[in-house]
Amino acid sequence: MKRTLGIFACAVVAAVAVAQTGSTVIQAFAEAISSAKSLSANYTVQAVGGVSAKYSVSLAKPNKVRLESANELVVADGEKITTLLKSEGKFYTRKQSDGDARALLAGEGFTFWAGFFDANAYKSPVSRDIAGRERNGETLSGGEAVYGAKFVRYFVSPQDKIARQATVDVNAGGQKSSTVMNAREVAVNPVLTDATFTFSAPKGAVEVAEAEWNAAEFLTDLDQAKKVAAKSGKKIFADFFAEWCGPCKLLDKEVFTTAKFKALSKKYVFLRIDVDRQKSVAEAYKIEAMPTQMLLDKDGQILKSTVGYANPSAFFQWLEGTP
């Protein structure tokens, strides 16, 4: 991928050059988590200089998932996926498809555990072992790797080989950011009953239909978005982004969270594609820089597109022809 259209498009460049000998620590982590039958963790994620956010994850082979953050709960029981937006008191249930369990771990805040369903999740052509660190009386082993513009250090327990800490540094398009993950509780192969993956709607929560869900939530599957568009007669608004992309985060904060944008769900099906996790989709649409936004018809054909992000006014001018 390459940098295009000025400073508001992120380039995929190496954050730091490290020896290409390969990290045995990261390899051990990948093997341990991919071979586990179940896993649960409570942890925090904090951007340096920001507020710490709490997360929890419960996973079971072959395809059961429970993810929770302050704003959202996602439960996949192997047959269906239910997503609850806590602040809005709305939930939506859809059929679970092959690959959904892996796709759910591509969401922001959950990628640290992506290797549970994807044995290749941590592979990098540039990685090495590094010095460990002390944590709660235990010496964690260290490994670092480069993933495009993202430079990640994993600190792994010598007992079960699962990461207890991770730091993510990004240097893209002249913008730098750092994030730290701290796992407070991790259990490998715990006994997880069906109750763990059973969704119980909280009091007052309202179930919404598939066509209405986009008022509050982006879809992450292109085929599903096309099906919803075909049923509802809407066009598809697609945002191609990367976790490490600063302008992508700004677009999310300044546009996607606004009532003005959410009101457009009456006209559009909202779709977000993580280019690092859905490479085949990104390649099919020839994505070269992030963020890229597209307007698609119900068959996924491009109606118009733009690259980069300047400000909300420019975004709405492009999408709707209004400032």
Fold and architecture overview:
This protein is an alpha+beta fold and 323 residues long. The chain folds into 2 domains: 16-197, outer membrane lipoprotein receptor (LolB), chain A (Clam), CATH 2.50.20; 209-320, 3-Layer(aba) Sandwich (Glutaredoxin), CATH 3.40.30.10. It is 19% helix and 37% strand. The chain contains 8 helices and 16 strands. It has helices at 24-35, 100-104, 210-213, 222-232, 246-256, 259-262, 279-284, 312-320, and strands at 38-47, 53-60, 64-68, 72-76, 80-85, 90-95, 126-135, 138-147, 150-156, 163-172, 175-188, 206-207, 235-241, 268-274, 292-296, 302-307. The protein has a 12-stranded mixed β-sheet with strand order 7-8-9-10-11-1-2-3-4-5-6-12, covered by helices on one side. A 4-stranded mixed β-sheet has the order 14-13-15-16. The longest helix has 12 residues, at 24-35. The two termini are 30 Å apart. Residues 1-20 have low confidence and may be disordered.
Q: Give the end-to-end Cα distance, rounded to a whole number of Å.
A: 30 Å
Care to count the β-strands?
16
Helix amount: 10-25%
Mean pLDDT: 86
User: What fold name goes in the CATH topology slot of the largest domain?
Assistant: outer membrane lipoprotein receptor (LolB), chain A
Biggest sheet layout: 12 strands, mixed
Rg, alpha carbons: 20 Å
- Give the H and E element order: HEEEEEEHEEEEEEHHEHHEHEEH
Poorly predicted segments: 1-20
Provide the domain count: 2
Shape: globular
